[in-house]
Amino acid sequence: MNMQPFRTHVFPLVRPLAMRWGAVLLLLALSWGALLGVQRVYQPGWQNAQAQAQAAQAQWDEARAEQDDLTAHRGRFEQLQAAGLVGADPRAIWVDDLLRTAREQGLQERIAFALAAPQGVDIAGADTASAQVKRHVLEYSLSRVHDIEALQFMQRFHHDHALVSRPMACRLELPTAEGLTVRCRVNFLHIDPAPAGDHNQGS
Amino acid sequence: MKHLAHASSGLLLVQPLLAQWHDAAGHELPLPFGPMEPVRVVADLIEETHVRIEVPGLMGADRSSFIQVQLQSLLPDVPLRATWQGAAQQPLLPKPFALHAVGVASATLNELLAQQVHQQRPVVGVWTLSYLMARWAGRQKHLPGTGWLFLCLGLPYGMRMVLLHDRIPVFSRLLLDTHPAQQALELGQTLKYLVDTRVIERMDTPGILLMQPTPDLEEAVQAQGRTLLPTAVARDPRGVLAEVLALADARAPGQLASVEQRRYSMASQTRKTLHWIGGVLALSVAAGLVLQGRAVQGQREQALQWQHQATEAERAAQDLRAQLAASGTNVALLRLTMQVQQSQLQRGVDLPKPLWLLGQLMQSYPQAQLQSTEITLQPQACAAAQGAQALPPSATDATGGDQASLLTEWNFEIQPAVGLFPRERQAMLDGLAARVQAWPGWTVQTNPVQVESGSAIVGGSSGATESLGSWRWCLVPSAQGQDLAAPGVAGATR
Description:
The structure holds two protein chains of two kinds. In chain A, about 55% of the residues lie in helices and about 25% in strands. By secondary structure, chain A is α+β, with helices and mostly antiparallel strands. Chain A has two domains: about 1-80; about 90-200, 2-Layer Sandwich (Alpha-Beta Plaits). In chain A, strands 1, 2, 3, 4 and 5 form a five-stranded antiparallel sheet that branches. In chain A, β4 and β5 (about 180-190) form a beta hairpin. The longest helix of chain A has about 80 residues, at about 5-80. Chain B is α+β, with helices and mostly antiparallel strands. Chain B is about 40% helix and about 20% strand. Chain B contains 14 helices and 17 strands. In chain B, β1 and β2 form a beta hairpin. The longest helix of chain B is centred in the middle third of the chain and has 65 residues, at about 265-325. The two termini of chain B are about 110 Å apart. Classes of the chains: A alpha+beta, B alpha+beta.
């Protein structure tokens, strides 16, 4: 279709109206553009507010979880703390207890023991708590003892340290008329709350 | 929309005697209507010429130029001219085709149109009555679609005759005589003229349709021995002429007026179109603007809410932290402690009950002697036969990993007394095994009975010392034994 006649004869008649509509549409388009611009300018701030809200919510959730844990486990924690699981190094206490128990049962001449050097235990929460978890393996033996004596000794010693130790193995062998030999291995656990840098690794 | 707009406009029928104004309903008006009212112009004049243009295989601008040259050549000095076929009906490919055109060279009509334009009256278009009659015939379903058709429309001032070929108008004549006999006579002479000038072949007989006949005219034509096509019933109560004139709208073919002559009408239509398009666009953009504005407002309010939530949550978290700090408990240490208890300080081995069971067993078999018994926590219980040996450090001990999943394993070895006959020895083993198997709470994983039955029996009176093997059992707690594999067979040591 040839548009030249239309441009020549018709368009001049409708030009004012076309320009008015064009101005209206342009104004609307500019308004829309301005609105989009406002949105674009403020968008980062709004997103930041959302991130802040989420972060604050996460902090609150964490604090709430800590409070729940505190409420649920505080009593047990204090028990374990009192038992020596957390705090100063109690290696000497364990050995003293072993010897004292043997002496009280008259077995001080028949007991032998070895408390190995502590081993570090990898536990996920240790870094968060700035603490070190250590395992102390105690191996002791009673020779030429009666089975009842051995059982009494083991029960007493293990019961006294039930909160901080775990009997891993016990072996009774070669029962003779003089008695039998008992070998046991007990894992003692200890949490050293001191930061790693302050801790004496050789203790 | 355009059709409705045009149908609602008035009409000016220009005939040789006068120009008759009609309102939008088709009623004749004594005077012209307002100068700003749109008007459709229908020309029924003697100065009407029909031509045929043979267009060769051309395309685009070449085709348009050729058609314009042919129109100028065939209709010289005729400003009002138009083709029956529109551009859309022309073939797309460059192949030859025929175009039919009409031209009206009437000074009266030109002056009338110039006058209307001068008054700035919107002229919708100018059509010939011949083309409108052809359009009317094209809509009559009872008329043949091909061949020759001769239309005769009685008018107040005479009769318009139009010859159609395949429904395309190729010839037209206006007779200014209202007498039926004379009209019939002229009809016959016109047909004879068409045959003589070889517009119609002599053997071709066009169908004659009297569109709005009077009885006298019908009789007069039939008296000439001509056969008439059945007359269509007019849908318009004012007659066929009104029906034909109503067909003058923007879609009617053969619009004669130029853009310049129709500029006020086209401007009016363009204004309406602009209003429609502009209105729709403006409404759409405005609606989008409102929605966008609401979205921005919503986001802003949401952000404010987030800020408020963040402040509240931070305050609540600080309060909780203060409470935690006031408690004096290091929660991280508490968690670590509970974790250590859970993973490293679960229940250890328990000797009294197994020893009591063993004591009961050995009392029943004085000829058997307990060599050793051992209870350990292992990653895999009763995995292999082990002889009497020192307590081995487990793999878990070395790595310091999770010890919550360690399994309890109970081993013991029993030595039969020297000097037993094989049958006594076997009976003792069977008895011991049956008793062990029956212990509640324990599941036998390694049973020496199977090994004993498959091993050599050694001994005699030669004075040599018998070398007798001990019997070894390996047991696990029943709850734990359900998860283990079937009992192994390696159970005896020698």
